[in-house]
Amino acid sequence: MRNSGPFHLHQTQPHNGWARVSVISSMCAPLGGDRLALDITAQGHARLEVTTPTATIALPGATTAPATYDVRLTVADHAMLTWLPKPLISASDSTLHQTCTVDLAPTAAVLLREEQLLGRTAEPPGHLTTRLTVYRGGRPVLDQHTAYGGTAPAWDGPAVLGGHRAAGQLLVVDPHLTTDHPSILIGDDPEKGHAVLTPLAQHPAYLATATATTLHQVGKLLDTALEHIRNM
After folding, report:
1. Residues 6+ apart with CB under 8 A from 145
2. Where does the sequence pass through the membrane (predicted)?
């Protein structure tokens, strides 16, 4: 493990054969103008869980330049990786461009979960863009781009968040999964949030997407989605 910039990597107690690492932020980041990157690799036959202990808060900085935060996950054959960061909070007047790129070997498995909160209490959000790109055996599985706040068109309209301020994604890719199940509507209540779980074409993969008023509601929806996947 190599530490640099605001990241301190801490190896925690292994559990049930899984190596576990916590990514601790040692300073306020990302601020405007910051360029951050995190590279995580699970070698062949490894089981690796990576988490963060606290939420990440995107804040305005001394410059108006956007901050960037790039996460790159690489999973070798017969390895399993879980990436479970705490939520990302887009504070007022901040600008953050975040990417997550996942490169999987054909027999690799990954569980990825991300949640975003647009604005702290009683404040508007900053400008946040996220992109999730997944490859398996060199073939594209998913390329999803979202943009919220700022100049993003219609981000709080009915076609995107519909007035909600929290969103989340859950991705599971596992060669043991079957994808002959139809899409599942998990939540469709304006008070409790909306979520859908859908298989991804031509790959053993499922993606759940959720929006709600609070992060707690988004978390419950994604928990339900994960239970559906585990029971398939």
Report:
1. 129, 130, 131
2. none
